[in-house]
Design a protein that fits this description.
Structural class: alpha/beta
Order of helices and strands: EEEEEHEEEEHEHEHEHHHHHHHHEHHHH
Radius of gyration: 22 Å
Strand order of the largest sheet: 10-11-9-12-13
Strand content: 15-25%
Number of helices: 16
Largest sheet: 5 strands, parallel
Helix content: 25-40%
Number of strands: 13
Length: 344
C-alpha cells in the first residue's frame, strides 16, 4: 500500500491512498480525539498512478474540507486511517506538543518492544510501530512520508535495505540483546506463538518461521532433550536461528545469509546510530533515548524481564553448539558492549 499527504492547508487536506488491490478505491476513517467523524471513499482521480502502473483507475485521491469535518481549520486532533488495514495515513498535532525529530528504532528482538514505542506515540505527529508487518512497499512508504518533521518508526527490518532512506534524516536507535538471551526469547516466543495472535507475527513471518516454530515445540525443561534437539537441528532451522543480528544489520533481507564481511558491516552500521544500548543495562539506554527526544528523565518505564527466558538462556550457554550458531552475533555484541562501557 502507498499513501501520501499532498497538502494540509488548514481548511483542506489533500492526499491519496493506493491499496494492494489493483482496482479497488480505498476508504478512510476520520476521527478526532479518538471519536469517529466520518468514513469517505478515496475516489479523486490521480492519472499519474495509472501511468506508473500502480492502480487500474487512479481513483485513489481524497479531499477533506469543512463539508466533511466542520471547523476543520481549528481541529488539531484529526486522524486519518485506512479502513482495510488500520494503517494511520495522517494525523494532526500542535507543533508545541510534538518532538520535531525523525526517529527510527531498529527492532532487534523477535518479541517486540512495542510498549516502549507506545510510550512516545503521543509525542510525534506520525507514528508507525512494527512497520515490517505491512510489507516492504508500505515500509518504504512510511520512510518517505513527505513534509514530516515529527516521525517515529520502529521495525524488525533488514537495515541495509533501508539505509538510504535513513541517511541524514533519521536518528536511529537500537537495543541489543545478549545473543543467548535473544535466542532463548525467540524460542519461547515461537513455541507459544499461537497465543499471541496475528499481531505479533503476521502471515509472512508465520510462513518464514514455520520450521523454527516446529523446532521450538521440542524445547522443554529437560537438559537431555534440549541437547538432543540442537544436535539434530535441521539446516533450514539453523538458517532461521543463526546470527539474526548480523543478518539484520548486514544482509539485504532477513532470510539472507550474512556476507563474508558481515561483522564489520554490522558494526559500521551500529556506529551510525544515535543511541545503541544493551538490554542488560536498559536503564542507561532509556536515559539516552529520553535525552535524544528531550523528554523528562524517568518518562520511559523500565523494560520487562522474563524469568523463563533467563533460565533457558543459562541452559543454552552450556551447549557448545549454540556458540557456533551465534558466533557472529556474539562478536558484534561483545564489541558493541565494550564500546558502550568505555564511553559510559
Amino acid at each position: 500500500m502507498l499513501f501520501n499527504i499532498e497538502a494540509d492547508r488548514g481548511n483542506r487536506i489533500v492526499g491519496y491512498v493506493v491499496p494492494d488491490e489493483f482496482t479497488k478505491s480505498p476508504s478512510l476513517r476520520i476521527t478526532s480525539n479518538g471519536e469517529p467523524i466520518a468514513e469517505i471513499m478515496c475516489k479523486d482521480e490521480r492519472p499519474a498512478l495509472v501511468t506508473a502502473g500502480r492502480h487500474a483507475t487512479g481513483c485513489c485521491g481524497f479531499t477533506i474540507d469543512a463539508r466533511i469535518v466542520p471547523d476543520i481549520a481549528k481541529n488539531d486532533t484529526l486522524e486519518l486511517t485506512d479502513v482495510d488495514t488500520g494503517i494511520v495515513i495522517y494525523r494532526r498535532r500542535k507543533k508545541t506538543q510534538v518532538v520535531e525529530k525523525c526517529v527510527f528504532r531498529l527492532e532487534t528482538h523477535l518479541f517486540p518492544l512495542w510498549r516502549l514505542d507506545e510510550q512516545v506515540e503521543h509525542r510525534f505527529q506520525f507514528f508507525h510501530k512494527g512497520v515490517e508487518r505491512h510489507g516492504r512497499e508500505t515500509a518504504m512508504q512510511v520512510f518517505n512520508i513527505s513534509n514530516a518533521a515529527s516521525l517515529y518508526l520502529s521495525g524488525r527490518l533488514a537495515f541495509s535495505a533501508y539505509q538510504s532512506f535513513l541517511h541524514d534524516r533519521f536518528d536511529c536507535i537500537a537495543l541489543l540483546h545478549d545473543p543467548y538471551y535473544e535466542l532463548a526469547e525467540r524460542l519461547m516466543t515461537l513455541k507459544h506463538v499461537a497465543k499471541f495472535g496475528d499481531d505479533l507475527l503476521g502471515p509472512r513471518d508465520m510462513l518464514s518461521f514455520a520450521a523454527a516454530i516446529e523446532f521450538a515445540q521440542q524445547i522443554d525443561d529437560d537438559d537431555r532433550n534440549l541437547r538432543r534437539a540442537f544436535d539434530q537441528m535441521q539446516k533450514n532451522v539453523i538458517a532461521i536461528l543463526a546470527n539474526p543480528l548480523t543478518r539484520q544489520l548486514a544482509s539485504e533481507a532477513l532470510d539472507d545469509p550474512p556476507p563474508r564481511t558481515g561483522v564489520a558491516k554490522a558494526l559500521a552500521a551500529l556506529a551510525s546510530f544515535a543511541v545503541v544500548g544493551l538490554r542488560e543495562r536498559s536503564d542507561a539506554f532509556l536515559e539516552e533515548v529520553e535525552a535524544l527526544l528531550q523528554i523528562p528523565a524517568g518518562t520511559l518505564s523500565p523494560l520487562p524481564r522474563f524469568a523463563a527466558v533467563e533460565e533457558l538462556a543459562a541452559r543454552l550457554r552450556r551447549l557448545p553448539e549454540i556458540e557456533l550458531l551465534l558466533e557472529d552475533d556474539l562478536e558484534i555484541y561483545y564489541t558493541a558492549k565494550a564500546a558502550i562501557e568505555e564511553a559510559a
